[in-house]
């Protein structure tokens, strides 16, 4: 966490309650800042803000800093943090609460938009290459089922996901 003087007037004391009110963030207030989540997070070495620091930002009311941190967008949702937290804080889920607020207020990062566009257009999170199909056949695995892209699109539209990823409305 970069060192910076923070004025009390910049703090949002209600932010932690906003997070705790959400289903994903309901455990956030139990944190005692022991650092076990960071010690066990596979990403913490490379993150600008570590898992326990994100929780600290929330508890202190550093709303802007927490919502601007890049770490949450690359959380692998592996839940090692929650496995090891002695207080039962579900840090990975708290990340979701933060991401939901950040998305509502300022949208999602460009890189994730591209990822979302791929899911929207193909119904798949990863491209199935010819190589992968051949390898499956060589291993005797069944062929992959066809993806019902239109049903997936309809579902995503209902959730207004298409608006989040700047996907143009298609006319029938
Ligand atoms: S392991 Fe749990 S109690 Fe410890 S810093 Fe992380 S969230 Fe807080
Ligand atoms: S869920 Fe996210 S924050 Fe928790 S250990 Fe995994 S990568 Fe780290």
Structure commentary:
By secondary structure, this protein is mainly alpha-helical. The protein has two domains: 8-106, Orthogonal Bundle (Fumarate Reductase Iron-sulfur Protein, Chain B, domain 2); 110-164, no CATH class. 49% of the residues lie in helices and 0% in strands. It is globular. The model has no long low-confidence stretch (mean pLDDT 92). The chain binds iron/sulfur cluster (SF4) (2 copies).
Keywords:
single chain, 172 residues, mainly alpha, Fumarate Reductase Iron-sulfur Protein, Chain B, domain 2, 2 domains, 49% helix, 0% strand, globular, binds iron/sulfur cluster
Short overview:
Helices cover 49% and strands 0% of the residues.
Helix content: 40-55%
CATH topology of the largest domain: Fumarate Reductase Iron-sulfur Protein, Chain B, domain 2
Major sheet attributes = none
Outline: globular
Oligomer: single chain
| SS class | mainly alpha
CATH superfamily of the largest domain: Alpha-helical ferredoxin
**Domains (count):** 2
SSE layout:
Elements: H1 15-20, H2 36-40, H3 51-60, H4 63-68, H5 80-84, H6 91-106, H7 110-122, H8 130-138, H9 149-158, H10 161-164
Residues 31-37, 52, 55, 85, 87, 89, 91 line the site of one iron/sulfur cluster (SF4).
């Amino acid at each position: 966490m970069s060192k910076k003087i923070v004025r009390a007037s910049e703090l949002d004391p209600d932010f932690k309650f906003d997070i705790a009110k959400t289903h994903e963030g309901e455990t956030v207030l139990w944190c005692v800042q022991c650092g076990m989540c960071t010690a066990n997070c596979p990403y913490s070495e490379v993150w600008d803000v570590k898992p326990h620091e994100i929780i600290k930002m929330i508890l202190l009311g550093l709303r802007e800093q927490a919502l601007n941190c890049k770490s949450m967008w690359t959380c692998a949702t592996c839940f090692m943090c929650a496995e090891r937290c002695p207080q039962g804080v579900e840090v990975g889920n708290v990340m979701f609460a933060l991401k939901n607020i950040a998305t509502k207020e300022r949208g999602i990062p460009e890189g994730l938009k591209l990822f979302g566009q791929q899911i929207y257009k193909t119904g798949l999170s990863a491209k199935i290459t010819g190589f992968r199909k051949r390898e499956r056949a060589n291993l005797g695995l069944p062929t992959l089922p066809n993806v019902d892209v239109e049903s997936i699109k309809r579902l995503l539209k209902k959730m207004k996901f298409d608006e989040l990823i700047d996907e143009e409305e298609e006319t029938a």
